[in-house]
Write a structure and sequence with these properties.
This is NAD(P)/FAD-dependent oxidoreductase. It is an enzyme of class 1 (oxidoreductase). It holds the Pfam family DAO. This protein is α/β, with parallel strands linked by helices. The chain is built from nine helices and 19 strands. The longest helix is centred in the first third of the chain and has 29 residues.
């Protein structure tokens, strides 16, 4: 391994944590004996749900086994989708034979997914959250000419149903968006944004507390027992009674809710942050300061940091957890494939977090047969999607929803004998790498 790619001050922790104090040293709040709603999971879903409940006059208690914000909510790349990548592969279109049925399905799915961006923008304004949010748009690079044509075939639907303000950019104009010839052109999607995940999560915590929520980190939820007037929730600090329980654990869903766990595929996403670079060089890499992604099966997503001095580069270096010594060199190499001009730029931070995929590639919200509410399965678009679904779940629990999202109550599929342990991911990862290689060779 080339140790020269690591900065002397390298840290195996998220770059975003430099701006926040994860966990802190303050003593945790006292565990109340009763709440209207207990929410298991202190990430974006749980906090958005708690804020909405508090605004409606309900008392929410948010439990997290780790310090609040320890999971993917502060470990992601900070891209905020506008509904442009929901339902990869159009799995939910199966059985919709007529063009009218397909259009209706696309309109409902993409239209609801696009509400995630609207929700975040309104929430940040209303709650005064300072998290460096910008609607800068996204460039999605085409791995092959065939991928470019595939994007072009979907652009009308994106613009009509998700209001994406998207357009195709041919390869000869690619450097208007990214200083590389690595791709075969791509798609520009203007209705997307970027955010500082750590500051966004911290702003959600503050807002939830202002609206009356009790936030309890380092408090693990245990047995969930139905009682006459709701639920008894055992925790590592004692029991609490609640009218309803929300499961908001997404990529960290575990043995507490095995029926939900077997419907989710947790996938590790790995990210690095580089040392600061010259401001002119940084700006030349992404002239319009967009977030970047590509159409490879082994996905990469990247951007500049909030101060436009570092590259934040993420992707599927491994489909499972891996140490920085394994994942960081892979991501560094992937970054140099796109930007050879960054050779010699060192890594200051490297980290990993879990995203959760559903078997149908769609987000899900609903109630289990036992009566537990849930919202999960971000499929890589969690900042916008889970924030939105968390808030919508809060409205639903208050009885104040004008309509239910299309993702509520849908069939949440699993597979025979699957228990939630994604043993097959390394095999799938190798197959995806081979397919990417084959596609590129053909191009």
């Amino acid at each position: 391994m080339d140790r020269s790619i690591f900065h002397p001050d390298f840290k195996a922790r998220p770059f975003w944590w430099e701006a926040i104090d994860i966990g802190g040293d303050d003593p945790p709040a006292e565990l109340p004996s009763r709440a209207d709603i207990v929410i298991v999971g202190g990430g974006l879903t749980g906090l958005n749900c708690a804020i909405e409940l508090g605004r409606g006059g309900a008392h929410a208690v948010v439990l997290d086994a780790e310090p609040l914000g320890y999971g993917a909510s502060t470990r992601n790349g900070g891209g905020v989708s506008g509904g442009n990548n929901v339902g990869k592969g159009l799995s939910g279109a199966k059985g919709r034979q007529s063009p009218e049925e397909m259009r209706d399905w696309l309109r409902s799915i993409m239209g609801d997914a696009s509400e995630g961006l609207s929700h975040i923008e309104a929430l940040i304004r209303r709650e005064g959250i300072d998290c460096h949010y910008e609607r800068t748009g996204r460039f999605v690079g085409a791995w092959t000419p065939k991928h470019f044509n595939g994007m072009a075939a979907k652009i009308d639907a994106l613009n009509e149903f998700a209001d994406a303000d998207a357009s195709m950019l041919p390869r000869e104009r690619q450097r208007e968006e990214i200083a590389t010839d690595y791709y075969y052109g791509g798609m520009v999607v203007n209705r997307t944004g970027k955010i500082h995940p750590g500051l966004y999560h911290r702003g959600l915590m503050n807002a939830a507390q202002r609206h009356g929520a009790t936030l309890l980190g380092r408090t693990k939820a245990g047995a969930l027992t139905r009682v006459a007037d709701g639920w008894r929730v055992e925790t590592s600090r004692g029991p609490i009674m609640a009218r309803e329980v929300v499961i908001a654990t997404n990529g960290y869903t575990g043995s507490l809710t095995p029926d939900l766990r077997r419907r989710l595929i947790p996938v590790a996403s790995h990210i690095i942050a580089t040392e600061e670079m010259d401001a002119g060089l940084a700006r030349s890499l992404i002239p319009n300061l967009r977030t970047l992604a590509d159409s490879r099966r082994i996905l990469s997503y990247y951007r500049l940091s909030h101060d436009n001095r570092r590259v934040i580069f993420g992707g599927r270096a491994r489909f499972t957890q891996a140490t920085p010594e394994i994942s960081a060199p892979i991501l560094h190499h992937m970054m140099l494939e796109r930007w050879p001009q960054l050779k010699g730029l060192r890594i200051t931070h490297a980290w990993t977090g879990n995203v959760a995929f559903a078997f149908d590639y769609l987000p899900h919200m609903g109630v289990t047969p036992k009566g537990l509410h849930y919202a999960m399965a971000c499929n890589g678009a969690g900042v916008a999607m889970l924030s939105y679904l968390g808030a919508e779940l809060g409205k639903k629990l208050l009885g104040k929803s004008n309509r239910m999202p299309v993702f509520d109550g849908r069939d949440f599929p699993t597979r025979p004998f699957y228990t939630g342990h994604p043993w097959m991911l390394p095999v799938i990862g190798n197959w995806y790498r081979f397919r990417d290689w084959l596609d590129r060779r053909a191009a």
